[in-house]
Write a structure and sequence with these properties.
The structure holds 2 protein chains of 2 kinds. By secondary structure, chain A is mainly beta. Chain A has no helices and 12 strands. In chain A, a hairpin with a 5-residue loop joins strand 5 (about 30-40) and strand 6. Classes of the chains: A mainly beta, B mainly beta.
């Protein structure tokens, strides 16, 4: 069965600093990988996704993620965080045979 | 135009009552889902429907009954509400029904059972 681990429950970053949110997945073959963001009181919005090809994926709002098969990771990065990036971030894994499995989320707090 | 909409946004009710949450998508997608997000923000799938047919039915009490009158609508009816049903319920849709399909989420319905 596929699974996703987001080891950090909370992360606090200063505005303007760089950000990396960790995600590790468990799946036997090449997975489909997603990052979603949930702002307070809102639904989830897709930031980016990886299916195949280039392992560095660009997304919306200046986010990127890198797929590393050897580490079973798909970490999310942003070079300079803005206060509006404060939200809950979810990593998810899927396959052609099953629907998405979400991680438990990482809450990003941005300090001034 | 809202792609995936849910009503109501907030729902407060007493234990033992029956309530429904409605979901509509105008994206022309074939698959719709219901998720439950608990107080720790954990998002767990409950059901998925593809072209009005039930595809996924996770371990959910049979007090929860989804109904899909057409492929643009997926409603969730809950009987005999319990305290543990308090959560945020999200509807989502996708073009296909596999894990490779991007899902579009509604704004959520916050259910509080007193």
């Amino acid at each position: 069965a596929q699974s996703v681990t987001q080891p950090d429950i909370h992360i606090t970053v200063s505005e303007g600093a760089s950000l990396e949110l960790r995600c590790n997945y468990s799946y036997g073959a090449t997975p489909y990988l997603f990052w979603y963001v949930q702002s307070p009181g809102q639904g989830l919005q897709l930031l980016l996704k990886y299916f195949s090809g280039d392992t560095l994926v660009q997304g919306i709002k200046g986010f990127e993620a890198e797929f590393k098969r050897s580490q079973s990771s798909f970490n999310l990065r942003k070079p300079s965080v803005h206060w509006s990036d404060a939200a809950e971030y979810f990593c998810a894994v899927g396959s052609g045979y099953s629907t998405l499995t979400f991680g438990k989320g990482t809450m990003l707090l941005v300090s001034p | 135009d809202t792609a995936v909409s849910q009503t109501p946004k907030y729902l407060v009710t007493q234990m033992g009552n029956d309530k429904s949450i409605k979901c509509e998508q105008n994206l022309g997608h074939d698959t719709m889902y219901w998720y439950k997000q608990d107080s720790k923000k954990f998002l767990k799938i409950m059901f998925s429907y593809n072209n009005k047919e039930l595809i996924i039915n996770e371990t959910v009490p049979n007090r929860f009954s989804p109904k899909s009158p057409d492929k643009a609508h997926l409603n969730l009816h809950i009987n005999s509400l319990e305290l543990g049903d308090s959560a945020v319920y999200f509807c989502a849709s996708s073009q296909g029904g596999t894990g490779g399909d991007e899902q579009f989420f509604g704004p959520g319905t916050r259910l509080t059972v007193l």
